[in-house]
Design brief:
- The chain is α/β, with parallel strands linked by helices and about 325 residues long.
- Helix content is about 45%, strand content about 20%.
- It contains 10 helices and 10 strands.
- Strands 3-2-1-4-5-10-9-6-7-8 form a 10-stranded mixed sheet, with helices on both faces.
- The radius of gyration is 22 Å and the shape is elongated.
Length: about 325
């Protein structure tokens, strides 16, 4: 199934981005999609010494010309493969210009290289990628430099709880599964699906509610069965033919901890998860689970949002 039609590859020549470039080219080729190779020359304050050495406008023009030359070199081999690739360089604040580009040209996927090394000591996702995962209206794929190109193991993190209305929650879960399964099929990889669960107020019921250990145990079994049934129903709604699927139902009242543990223990290459606004301020915050996972994730991550999501970024007025 052709999933993407209009891909935006964001290039930053200060990063190790070859994996992101190769992934974008492969997706464009397999989907017959157009590919814009995009670079933003960051505008910012110029110190007095630099301004004396070279006028700001001339400096920006030179930087833009340098980026255009580098993008042309990236695009040339893509075109030889038959990819409809086109370069573009703009000036401004990177995340704003990227989102405005998505809005103007209706891109359905943004791909960019991870800005850090990942792990606990150093976050994999820097300022630009976090802004995009919070505010970009289309899926955002942040690609970590890795030794292997093919994703051997992909993890789809879903949430079948009743915290959000079904009209928003279920379509987001289906979208996560469709993206994760199509990529697993493309890379001939193993698909892992996680739904963390817990018994509400279990500790209180055990200590203050007077429930016996046996009653708590039975309650846990019942709740897990309900979550398992919900997860099975979700999997039935997606075409998983030919894909090796492993389900995970960890009992953990901290979903982010459960997801991070699964990523580490199963050597996950790509995590597909949803980001949602829970604050009432459109686009400014992502869910607590996503925020915590992204602070410790050490793999590539593809984030998606509900259809109801509205970005706070607006096109500049003409």
């Amino acid at each position: 199934m052709k999933r993407f039609k209009n891909i935006l590859l964001v290039c930053d020549f200060h990063l190790q981005q070859q994996m992101a470039v190769d992934r974008a080219a492969s997706l464009a080729l397999q989907n017959g999609a157009s590919l814009t190779v995009f670079s933003v020359v960051r505008e910012g304050p110029v110190d007095a010494h630099t301004a004396k050495s070279m006028p700001v406008r001339a400096l920006l023009e030179q930087m833009v010309a340098d980026h255009e030359e580098k993008l042309d070199a990236l695009v040339a081999p893509m075109r030889r493969q038959g990819i409809d690739a086109r370069p573009q360089v703009v000036t401004g604040i990177p995340f704003l210009e990227i989102i405005r580009k998505v809005l103007r040209d209706e891109h359905d996927l943004v791909i960019l290289a991870a800005e850090g090394k990942g792990g606990i000591k150093e976050r994999l996702f820097g300022s630009t990628s976090m802004h995009l995962m919070r505010k970009c209206p289309c899926p955002v794929w942040v690609v970590k430099a890795a030794k292997r190109f093919r994703h051997q193991r992909i993890l789809a993190a879903v949430d079948t709880t009743d915290e959000f209305p079904d009209y928003e929650r279920q379509p987001l879960n289906v979208l996560i599964m469709e993206l994760a399964s199509s990529l697993a099929r493309m890379d001939r990889g193993e698909l892992h699906v996680v739904q963390a669960w817990s018994v509400f107020a279990e500790g209180y019921m055990e200590v203050r509610g007077g429930l016996s250990e046996q009653s708590i145990h039975q309650l846990r079994k019942q709740v897990k069965r309900e979550y398992a049934a919900q997860l099975d129903a979700l999997l039935m709604a997606v075409d998983l033919e030919g894909i090796a699927v492993r389900k995970h139902l960890p009992r953990n009242d901290n979903p982010s901890r459960a997801i991070i543990k699964l990523v580490k223990n199963n050597d996950i290459d790509l995590l597909v998860m949803g980001t949602v606004c829970r604050t009432g301020i459109a686009g400014f915050f992502i869910g607590n689970t996503a925020e915590k996972v992204l602070s410790e994730a050490d793999c590539s991550v593809l984030t998606v949002k509900p259809e109801s999501f509205v970005t706070p970024v607006r096109l500049e007025e003409s």
